[in-house]
Amino acid sequence: MAGIPIRFGIIGCAEIARKVSRAIQLAPNATVSAVASRSFDKAANFAKANGFPPDTKIYGSYESLLDDPDIDAVYLPLPTSLHLKWAVLTAQKKKHLLTEKPVALSVAEFDQILKACEENGVQIMDGTMWVHNPRTHKMKQFLNDKEQFGQLRTVNSCFTFLADPDFLKNDIRVKPDLDALGALGDAGWYGIRSILWAADYELPKTVTAFRNPVLNEAGVLLECGASLLWADGKIATFHCSFLSNLTMNLTAIGTLGTLHLTDFIIPYQEHQASYTTSAKPGFNELVTGWVQLPSEHTVTVDLPQEVCMVREFASLVANIKKNGAQPDKKWPTISWKTQLVLDAVKASMEKGFQPVEIVG
């Protein structure tokens, strides 16, 4: 089986599937083998519009794709409310699962998905792309440098974009029956993930939602945020919104240094990404300027971050198929922790914005 690419089936023709299907085709160890929609014509048009290989199988139902014995893995870009049903069925059909985020509507739902994956020996990973960017690994090296960064004390994360009127009226992310988590699930997921990433995925002690979140008429969150507190005194905040200018800021502050970037989710350029570090800065004698100025670092990448994600996932799947390895638990554990904190933010809102203790 050496050199044989992992064969992906795509269930659903969401907009994000265009980007990920391109990544599957660019990944050296993966290929698009099938696409399914509830409409055969929609699936066929999607395959044509996105330049799928001519031998790509077209299915007019999700079940038909899952029954295909030649599919190794499924990419699932369906609305969050459909994840539980189709992720469990995917696992039961012994297909490995790359699923969009948020992974579920709650940890309780995700636990059912994980149970199905574990029972069927299936690898699962969520579609958070930026953590697979080589820049992310370089930034982590700085955060782990006790001489330059010291101990983590504070993380601030922000992801906002100004949605147009059509989005705010018709997009699935504002529909309670499709993506009931709204901005918290869509944009807040990234903020929570970035905070956990900076904290080495150590769960906070408590989570407190900010007051005055913005909801639409259907009760779906359009803007919100929260603070996270650890037992050792670390604190973090995130803000997410469909109602503000496009912003993707991440700042991690240690006792000795600071990491800062303004495009942490999607880099300004596909094949290179930058970040700024500051270590042991101070003021000049007259306090008219800084000494030890921040430094900018640029990482050139051979493959876009979404391709790196697919390559990593396909490598894990190949190791299971070829070598009989057990599914890797790193990625589902990270997904579970992210969902757990997201649940705590919701619970804090429901409890009058009181702190909610994390139990994990």
Can you tell me the residue ranges where pLDDT is under 50 for at least 5 consecutive residues?
A: none
Shape: globular
Q: Number of folding domains? A: 2
Q: State the helix count.
A: 10
What's the total number of strands? 18
InterPro entries: Gfo/Idh/MocA-like_OxRdtase_N (IPR000683), GFO_IDH_MocA-like_dom (IPR055170), NAD(P)-bd_dom_sf (IPR036291)
Domain GFO/IDH/MocA-like oxidoreductase: 145-259
Organism: Gossypium stocksii
Family: Belongs to the Gfo/Idh/MocA family.
Characterise the protein shown here.
The strands form three sheets. Strands 7, 8, 9, 10, 11, 12, 13, 14, 17 and 18 form a ten-stranded mixed sheet that branches. Strands 3-2-1-4-5-6 form a six-stranded parallel sheet, with helices on both faces. The protein has helices spanning 15-26, 40-49, 62-66, 83-92, 107-119, 134-143, 165-170, 182-198, 305-323, 330-350, and strands spanning 6-11, 30-36, 57-59, 73-76, 96-99, 124-126, 152-162, 206-209, 214-215, 221-229, 235-241, 243-254, 257-261, 272-279, 282-283, 290-291, 295-300, 356-357. The chain contains ten helices and 18 strands. The protein folds into two domains: 6-129, Rossmann fold, CATH 3.40.50.720; 133-305 and 339-357, Dihydrodipicolinate Reductase, domain 2. The mean pLDDT is 97. 34% of the residues lie in helices and 27% in strands.
